[in-house]
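Technical note accompanying the year-one report. For the benefit of new consortium partners, we illustrate the data format agreed upon in the data management plan: each record pairs a sequence with a structure-token string. No post-processing was applied to the example shown here.
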Amino acid sequence: MRQIWDFHGGVHPPENKSQSTSRPIRKATLPKTLILPLSQHIGQPAKALVEPGQKVLKGEVVAAAEGPVSVAVHASSSGIVTAVERRPVPHPSGLSDVCIVIETDGEDAWTHLTPCEDYRSLSPEQLLERVRQGGIAGMGGAGFPTAIKLHPPRNDKVNALILNAAECEPYITADDMLMRERADEVIRGMEIMAQLLEPEECLIGIEDNKPSAIAALKQAASGTHIEVVVIPTKYPSGGEKQLIKILTGLEVPHGKIPADIGVMCQNIGTAAAVYRAVRFGEPLISRITTVTGDGVATPGNFEVLLGSPMSDLLQQAGFDASKTDRLIMGGPMMGFTLTDPDLPLVKTSNCIMAVSAKEFPRPDPAQACIRCGLCAEACPAELLPQQLYWFAKAQEFDKAENYNLFDCIECGACSYVCPSSIPLVQYYRYAKNQIRVTAQEQQKSDKARERFEFRQARLEREKEEKEAKRKARAEAAAKAQAEKAAQQQDAPAEADPKKAAIEAAIKRAQAKRAPAPAQAQAQAQAQAQVNIAELQTNVDKAREKLAKVRETLAESDGANAAMQEKLRNAIDKNEERLAAAEKALHDAQNSAQGIPAASNATQATQADPEQQARAIARTRDKIKTLTQAIEACRETDPQRAAQLTETVEKTKAKLAELEAESAPTDKTTDKPPEPNLEELTSQVEKARDKLNMMQGMLDDARAEQPADEAKIAKLQRAVEKNQDRLAAAQKTLEDARTQAGGAGVKAASPEEIEALTSALEKAQDKLAMMQNMLREAQQESPMDEAKVAKLSRAVEKNQDRVAAARATLNEARGDAAENQTSTDGAGA
């Protein structure tokens, strides 16, 4: 006689099992539509392999396992796939999931199967592969993939293989009827599991309220090493940890699983499914489901295809909506209410209850906890339910977790005995879900931080590598220069006529290129006049803005005090800006007066023609904008139009002065200074950057919904203006290069070439960084279109900069080579 242990707590609710055991298992009819959720198990959802319009056969794989903890999904019957979409699925939270919808053709035609006459001849790997291809998940509880549980542990030996036949939940009799009618399949399935795990003993735990099933199992197990152990009836003896304690006396430690103590548990229905998958090659496409309650005329057990609507199964059991208060999936202790009778049956659907209000009355409103302690006495996990309830209600989830919240099996024994009708299990489920969500968010945050730190380390490493290469090149160049100088010092001191002639020629060329003192003075005067013109423009703008703000304050008479206070503050700021601009102008004028005249023929020096041209263009644009504003407000605000007209007249007068200053004169001047190519190149780059910025703002404005037409028009004008400025700057640069080329350009030194090479490398590094950021943005889900567009523009801008830097370097290298060639020719 095998020793039996007891577990803490437990309850004895009314069984109500006889209603559904009076009839044999019936085969459910073929439904017109099958709805197969891709997540009928714990782990990753399966990946759909079919598309709408595709024909499938019974048993064909329609969704493959995605990852190690996942299970395949098979077509329960032949037909046409009509949709792959999200639909409601059986879940306590009423969630939806991606489902494959099949319109059955009525033929119920099987796909090709591969049966095995002698499964004992198969290797463990072959057996596991058949179980995995069968898409079998635990059919008694959470739906854990069976192939993973049957994988032999590497280091630990399985001491006991337990088949859970307790079925302790009231109303449910699916396993009971399966054992009565198909005990041979259950025993053969357990033998296959034992062949995989090689346990020391095989036990079937069954409650003593199932005499017919006990007799059938003992008869089928005769002559095998399987022992049928009858245990007392008590809820929840069918819990995995509780059944292990009853049969072996072992307790599963906190945070561990039964495999950690050498025990493996499986369900009755799972064993039968394993046998059919290995012996006949049949995947899991049907199961035994109990239909019971006062709302059906003929309660019983049905072999129903997975994906069948529950409403079809209820109709076959004589469903009467007038007698039904609600539908429950599972038992009265651990089940949950169904919101829709058309939800599909899944691999874990062991029972559907159509209960009346008399049979299953609504719970009373929850009252305050009286700390009676009945919940702690009933808890089979030896927890403190009332303390967990307080923590969950106060959202102190960390404390609830410290009190071993996740050891709760949600059996409902605490809620069953609670005199205050507190839905304790619902509080525990809520707390568990919040803890899982927090953990997932923390995991995402940690991964993002790791990615950022890795990227920063990579960039720093690349920066150090590039700096090391640059230093190595600089050291090599310095070494070469030192060797060259040493060679020159070691050379004989005799005068070389050819070398002396070359050096004299170089000195004469340098003397010609050096600007004369008068020319340098003229450049300084021109620059001073340009600065004064710009500062005068700043003063005029500051005065205009101050006048506008004062006018706005005058018009806002009667407005709220906050608005008037803001306007007064704006006046103070603009007065300060005007004073600063006038002081800068005054200082510049005083400084200009201290510069002596270049010659008697030039008493006043004109500003740079390019800057004067830009000032004229800005003034013309301002006149155009003011004219448009006058036309817009002529009818609505005549006073404002008159004020703007005065501003236009002043601006036109200023334009006339600028045009007069830029007009050519007949005065004789010194030779114009040599153009500054570096400054002109910088101006071109600035003009190009500003054009790219304005173009980006225009693209963003066009992408906005709804589009702001006025803003787009304004930005379009700004883009056109900057295009003109860029073209003018490029033309000036080209002319200067042509002039400099005719006069002879100084050959680039090794140090200058080194600097240009470093600038090219920096531009290439920045381009690579922007390209990486663009690729990362394109791979984000969902993709940020605005961010991608912005990064694309940045990549294009940096590509232009790399091209310009490369062209400058190539030009410098070519000039150096040309100068070297001319020197060699002179030496010859």
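Partners are asked to follow this layout when depositing records. The mean pLDDT is 83.
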